[in-house]
Amino acid sequence: MAVVAAAAAWLWSGLWSERFWFPANVTWADLERDGGPEGGAGYRAGHVLAAFPLAAGIFLFRHLFERFVAKPCAIFLDIQDNGPRRAQPNAILEKVFTSITKSPDARRLEGLSKQLDWDVRKIQCWFRHRRNQDKPSTLAKFCESMWRLLFYLCIFTYGLRFLWSSPWFWDTRQCWYNYPFQPITPGLYYYYITELAFYWSLMFSQFTDIKRKDFLMMFIHHLATVGLITFSYMNKMVRVGTLVLCIHDASDILLEVAKLANYAKYQRLCDGTFVLFCVVFIVTRLGIYPIWILNTTMFESWDIVGPYPSWWLFNGLLLILQILHVSWSYFIIRIAYKALARGKVSKDERSDVESSSEEEEVTSNNRKGILSPSVNDSNRINGHITSDQWAEEE
Fold first, then answer.
1. How much helix, strand and coil, in percent to the nearest 5, is found in the chain?
2. Which among 108, 305, 331, 354 counts the fewest CB atoms within 10 Å?
3. CA–CA dist 249, 199 (Å, integer)
4. What angle do CA 364, 366, 135 make, to 5 degrees?
5. Exposed/middle/buried for 132, CB within 10 Å: 0-12, 13-18, 19+?
6. Three-class SS of residue 393?
7. What whole-number distance in Å separates Cα of residue 53 and Cα of residue 196?
8. Rounded-to-integer distance, Cα 387 and Cα 371, Å
9. What is the DSSP letter of 102?
10. Residue 183: how many CB atoms within 10 A of its CB?
11. Which residue has the higher pLDDT, 193 or 217?
């Protein structure tokens, strides 16, 4: 136990090492005397803990909004609260589904066919329906997207308004002058902590939200986002952090609008908004982000502040994010290209709803559009479009 305690103490002291977090000759005490978000209360890394009660408040507000605002809007647009078709009750197949496998192989299908005197195709259809019946209705997905649209629209508007009057928005070198002795104003603090709280709420709500194929990928994405926001606050890279947040929020608004239009069957609006989303996503992630953000974090900061241990880690994480941007952009372009011959957006396969027969799959394929490439494109765009299709029958 003494060895474990000593190791834990060593790791804890290393975690809070000033030599890691800040340039030479800067201490935590220096920053605490520098003034914090309340204008003189002193900076403390522990200020990020305020995100937890705020995340709980956001989670509660979300459910109230979905119930009393989004749901009436969905009903007004004639979006039905109908889930996928339910499977025919069968005790034997239900036992296999719940205790053995949700996707039986050919050998097991043959055995079940002989046991039940059912055709193999009929058993396959039963398992498809059974896998689908626990999936949410279009109304539930509409409410979730409407909530996300509200948050992204509000936080992006607030962030852009705040940054418009901030000197580092117009001259990114201002992110590094007098670093790390830069005041964290109330406006900056509220923007940062609200974004952090939102992503914490997304992590928690993943366990109650629509279950999608990319659950693990999105959980890791949210965890990494929380880590980056927390990390940049603790070492006071908040100015450049606000620029990163604003860039990433811009395209999310358009994606949620496209999804809402799809659920409400406003196909032209859905298609047009998705095309606009593609343009904004690619411009912000492949253009503005590397030219504006990476340039200042890697080169301008090197000239003004110089490298130190957490500087290398921070830039490494931002470079990994850029690699993801390239990957996501590739699949978005691929999705849009394959849709040109199909005509419209129709399915978000993240919800993992399958057609109940080959005939239904053919019908679904005939309706595919801008978001409908092959299944191999699924789950690769990480929360922006992590899938290839949006189904009307999801």
1. 70, 0, 30
2. 108
3. 12
4. 15
5. buried
6. coil
7. 11
8. 8
9. S
10. 15
11. 193
Closest CA to 21 of 185, 338, 237: 237
- The candidate with the shortest Cα–Cα distance to 350, out of 323, 380, 325, is 380
The two structure tokens encoding residue 340: 């040109």
289, 201, 185, 290: which is closest to 238 by C-alpha? Answer: 185
Global confidence as pTM: 0.78
d(CA 108, CA 114): 10
Q: How far apart are CA 281 and CA 268, in angstroms?
A: 20
pLDDT value of position 210: 63
Between CA 141 and CA 261 the distance in angstroms is 12
Q: Which of 248, 203, 186, 241 is nearest to 47 (CA)?
A: 186
CB 153 within 8 A of CB 105: no
Measured CA to CA, the distance from residue 177 to residue 19 in angstroms comes to 20
**What are residue 382's phi and psi, to 5 degrees?**
50, 65
Cα separations (Å) of 1 from 5, 7, 50, 92?
A: 6, 10, 33, 52
SS3 363: helix
Cα torsion 168, 318, 289, 215: sign: negative
Angle at 27 between CA 24 and CA 31, to 5 degrees: 120
CB atoms within 10 A of CB 390: 28
Per the CB < 8 A criterion, the answer to whether 162 and 242 are in contact is: yes
Angle at 158 between CA 155 and CA 162, to 5 degrees: 135
Any idea how long the chain is?
394
* Residue 390 near residue 348, CB atoms below 8 Å: yes
Instruction: Copy the structure tokens of residue 193.
Output: 């902590």
For the chain, count helices (H), then strands (E): 18, 0
DSSP state of 214: T
Distances (CA, A) of 387 to 215, 245, 267, 347, 383: 12, 23, 18, 9, 9
Residue 220, φ and ψ in degrees, nearest 5: -65, -40
Structure tokens at 304: 């003004």
Q: Is the pLDDT of residue 201 over 80?
A: yes
Compute the distance between CA of residue 391 and CA of residue 345 in angstroms, rounded to an integer: 9
Which phi-psi region, left, alpha or beta, contains residue 40 (left: φ > 0; alpha: ψ -120 to 50)? Answer: left
Q: Which tens digit of pLDDT belongs to each residue from 151-191? A: 999 999 999 999 999 999 999 999 999 999 988 888 999 99
